[in-house]
Automatic annotation (TrEMBL):
Spans through the membrane: none
Domain CTLH: 3-39
Classification via PANTHER family: RAN BINDING PROTEIN 9-RELATED
Family annotation (PROSITE patterns): CTLH
InterPro entries referenced in this protein's UniProt entry, alphabetically: CRA_dom, CTLH/CRA, CTLH_C, Ubq-SigPath_Reg
Protein name: CTLH domain-containing protein
Amino acid sequence: MSEVIRSAFRKILDTNPQLYFHLQQQRLIELIRNGKVEEALEFAQEELAPRGEENQGFLQELERTVALLAFEDVTNCPVGELLDISQRLKTASEVNADILTSQSHEKDPKLPSLLKMLVWVQNQLDEKATYPRITDLSTAALEDPAS
């Protein structure tokens, strides 16, 4: 995944070492998840260890990630949450936010804010007018004001 992003968004990765590290960390996590222990160790030494030497925060994250290798049952280890889907989503959200920011878009999607505004406007209109009200936001089902 990071190679595709790297080629398309080289500038983002070159200017954001934390994002690049997190993508590489996620790659290491996936190697560990797939039981590729030797490949994971080699990858950690070649790709991540040099970055850990430059940044204490990266080193701590790397140590936590490599700690997964010390446990046979990673589901009960202190850093097992790194293998949860939430870790993948966290990395993906970070990538998405940086891509949107680099393209001068907002980090957060506008749809949730627009839906909240729609509900507020409908609540205001309920007191003043009869109109085709949206009753289900997921389908945009309208309620006929005549019924």
